[in-house]
Amino acid sequence: MSLADIIRGSMIPLCPIETGMHSRGAPVSPVRAALFDVYGTLFMSGSGDIFVTASGMSGERMRVLEGLLRRYGVEDEASEVFKRYLGEIDRTHERLKGEGCDYPEVQIEKVWMKVLELDDLDRAREFSVEYECLFNPVWPMPYLREMLDRLSAWGVLLGIISNAQFFTPLLFEASLGVQPEDAGFDEELLFYSFRFGRAKPSPLLYERAREHLECRGIAASNTLYTGNDMLNDILPAMRAGFQTALFAGDRRSLRLRDEDPRCSGQGPDMVVTDLQELTDLIIKGRRNAEWVTS
C-alpha cells in the first residue's frame, strides 16, 4: 500500500465551520499568479494546523497513540514517546537557530527515526503518515478542484507556500487522484517548508517565490497569496509585495492573531469565506482588465 493510499483510506469527510466573518475586498490589480497555504486553506484540518501540541494531547489521544506504537512494535508508554518527540523537535529547532535560521523547520520522518530508534526511512515515513492521519485528519475545502481547473483555464499560474512535510503533496493524490503538478500547480512554485528547513513566517519562502515569478515576468503586485493565518501567511506575503486574501472559511484553522502586536494595524486586501468566491473575484478582475485594455 502506498503512502497516498494510507492517507486516502483514513480520510473522513469534514465540513467547514462558519467563522462569522464576512467577505470584503477584491484584487487591487489583475492576478496573474495565485499562491496558497495548504492546511486550513486548500484543505480543512481537523486540528487546525499541521502539528498537534502538548496541550492538544488528551488522554484519549494518548490511548490512540499507544495503539499505533504497539502496531509498530514499540512498547514504551505513549506519554514518554510523545515527550521524546516534542523534545527532539525542540532540540532540532535550537540547533538550527544556532546556525542562524530564523524559523526552523524539521523533517518529521527524521524526528521519528530518532524517537523510535528506527533505521528504516521508509518505515519512519509510514509511521509519520499514520500518525498525521490520526491526529490531523484533512479533507479538501469545498470547490478546491473547481478552483484549480478554472484558474488554470484562465492562465493563472498556481503555486504553494506552506508549512509542510513530505506527506503534504500526497494530500492531492489521495483526495484528487493527481499530483499537485497535475492538478494545475506549477512545479517551480511549490515552496514547502520542509524542503528549505524554514517555516513560515520566515520571509525566505515568500522571497524565493517572488524571485521565481519576477524571472517569468510576473510582478509581486500581480500575485495573490491566500492563507488563513494573519501572522504566518498574510504578514510575510504583504512584506513580499503580494496582494493578500485572508481565508476565513473554517473556524478550526482561522488565525486572526489579534493579541500579537506584529499584526496590530495590519489587514489583508481581501477576506474570503470559500474558494469559489475567491475564484470568481480573481476571474472578474481578469475580465475587467481585459475589457479596459481591449
Q: Could you name the CATH class of the largest domain?
A: Alpha Beta
Domain unit count: 2
**Mean pLDDT, nearest integer?**
94
How many DSSP E strands?
Answer: 8
Walk across the major sheet and give the strand order. 5-4-1-6-7-8
Q: And the CATH topology of the largest domain? A: Rossmann fold
Oligomer type: single chain
Tell me the β content. 5-15%
Q: What is the CATH superfamily of the largest domain?
A: HAD superfamily/HAD-like
Helix content: 40-55%
Question: Rounded to an integer, what's the Rg over CA atoms?
Answer: 19 Å
Number of discrete helical segments: 11
Sheet with the most strands, sense and barrel status:
6 strands, parallel
Structural class: alpha/beta
**Element string (H = helix, E = strand):** HEEHHHHEHEHEHHEHEEH
Distance between the termini: 53 Å
Annotation keywords:
294 residues, Rossmann fold, 6-stranded parallel beta sheet, two-stranded antiparallel sheet, 44% helix
Please characterize this protein's 3D structure.
The structure is a single chain. The chain has 294 residues and is an alpha/beta fold. The protein has two domains: 202 residues, HAD superfamily/HAD-like (Rossmann fold, 3-Layer(aba) Sandwich), CATH 3.40.50.1000; 82 residues. It contains eleven helices and eight strands. The protein is globular and about 65 Å long. It starts with a helix and ends with a helix.
